[in-house]
Amino acid sequence: MFQYQVPKRFTDLNAGGHVDHGVLIDYLQEARTEFLLSAPGPVPAMLDSGVLVTGHWVEYLAPIAYRTPTVDAEVWVDQVGGARFSISYRLSDDGVPVALARTFCVPYDLEVGELRRLAADERALLTQAVAEPVSVQPLGKVKPTELAQARPMPLRVRWADLDSYRHVNNVKFFDYFGQARLELIAGAGPLRPGDPWVVARQDLDYRLPIDFRREPYQVRTGVARVGTSSCEFVADIVDPADRRCFATARSVLVSVDEAGRPEPITEPVRKLLTARQASD
């Protein structure tokens, strides 16, 4: 099993003084990249020819503070197919488990601009490292009907959002969905300082790459379920001109008090969330 210490940055912290949930996805990417670059044979070269992320399943177990300079990551291949493979992670901070995750990947030919199958030697090397996947169950695909009452938000891509493949990096999608969720919740009134909401689970499915352009895309955010202290959000990113879908996301957030303990969702926020919930 591959182990890597992901360096923290002070700018990784959010308003609550913890590493932001979207930054944790960047930690997964750093650990995954080091894992692939450290592999023998043709595997490191796959990053140059192209590897696309098609999905993430992420379970957040505990907040990450800035007590230590690194986050400890365990990384391994958990499944290999003819044209795809998936990777599992266990992350801990100062000995405390903080996240479990799986990432789903496909090889890509950047020169041709098409998905490709794994070469025989690539598949053989990846298969050598296969172990049981981490225990994270999927939240389920987003259904179009769940977005019937969704709130639209214009999305302007920044030049800095692009990666070496000249598409928006997979990590940035989490920022887009997170911004849209908070703007929806803020419709009930200003958010208090700190962390009134924490992300407990998040799944993201990538459909198409997002290119840089000056015209905004659109994030649509709806509500699938409202509980006592938690809420399940659904969202997608679309082109407002032709309705092409670039990604979908399902996430579970928990309302917490200043000590980080679950607390009931306030009535103004509950009313707002219920209005964005699609009828059965």
From TrEMBL:
Similarity annotation: Belongs to the 4-hydroxybenzoyl-CoA thioesterase family.
Keywords linked to the UniProt accession: Hydrolase
Key word Hydrolase present: yes
Single GO term (MF): fatty acyl-CoA hydrolase activity
Name of the protein: Acyl-CoA thioesterase
Organism (species): Microlunatus elymi
Domain of life: Bacteria
Entry-linked Gene3D superfamilies: Hotdog Thioesterase
InterPro entries cross-referenced by the UniProt entry: 4-hydroxybenzoyl-CoA_TE (IPR050563), HotDog_dom_sf (IPR029069)
